[in-house]
Amino acid sequence: MGFGKPSKIQETALPMLLADLPNNMIVQSQSGTGTTAAFVLSMLNRVDATQNFTQVICLLPTYELALQTGQVAEKMSKFCPEIKIGYAVRGERVSRGHKVTDHILFGVPGTMLDWIFRHKAVDPRKIKMFVLDEADFMIAIQGHQDQCIRIHKKLAKDCQIVLFSATYDDEAMRFAKTVVPDPIVTRLRREEEIPDNIKQFYVVCRDQEDKWQALSNMFAVLSIGQCIVFCQTRESASWLTTKMTAEGHSVALLSGEITVEQSLAVLNRFRDGKEKLLITGNMFMLGIDVEQVTVVVNYDMPVEHSGGPDFLTYLHRIGRTGRFGKNGIAVNFIDGSRSMNIMKKIEEHFGKKISLLETNDVEELEKLN
Fold first, then answer.
1. Which one of 80, 200, 230, 268 is CB 3.0 to 4.6 Å from 354, fit for a cystine?
2. What is the DSSP letter of 98?
3. pTM of the model
């Protein structure tokens, strides 16, 4: 799979995850640093393939992320054909009383809860390892936190419990301590830190047309591997897709209006490099893990319902670039005093300078190459 040596998180966590006496762990590490491989290797190691029942479950906040992580496990278990991997997600059905024989299940909390409590398809007392990934987003999605806790309460006392998250605010840490007894806590990053390999810029724009022109100028000059543009509304995402397509760019659009199957097809095409530009909203950002993404654009600055800056969304958006230590660029389009104020608060919150970028200046853009 191209792993030359373990990443820092793999080097730190794997010996403890794989120990004969299983350790419960709370791990903080930025996405893109090898956390998925670390816990997937541990999950595969815990399975006794001679026993045909579910022994390991991994809960994730979205359908797309559950499938993406499961696909990593399928790839890593290529030479362990006896280990069966399944998905407890929307569209996958089990009949009441039917016992699932997949050794490892990747799923979302609601479906997993149904399989355990309503259908009795999975016996929680037989689970050897329970993994929660993207815990910060897990507790942010309505109901997921309570569902995870309900499942956790049915596990055997000796079940190994591992929780991964890029950030831990006070609520996330309270949740972590609720579900992970006597944990080893491993933190490889300062809370909510933006990696040094991601350079941040802002572009002053008058209106939507100006934003589109700035993006067009960037594509004309910058050596972009692949680019993700985050829009706050479906309307702006659709409008921008039309404009960029008309200019001759190969564009992928992820929108809440399309089906899950269509979303996965769009993501797979983008991962395969069939489109260079992906335009999307917040709901899909956790499912996009593409090493070739060199530029992320905040077409609209992320805001909470209150109108204030959404720091966590900003961190996860720009974290789609700079994967596995590669250099990445994050560009924020600022179209007024309100978005400028939001950007300044983000700059202050993370303690990292966001520099002015003149997209009309070809020489300045070329310096970024």
1. 200
2. P
3. 0.63
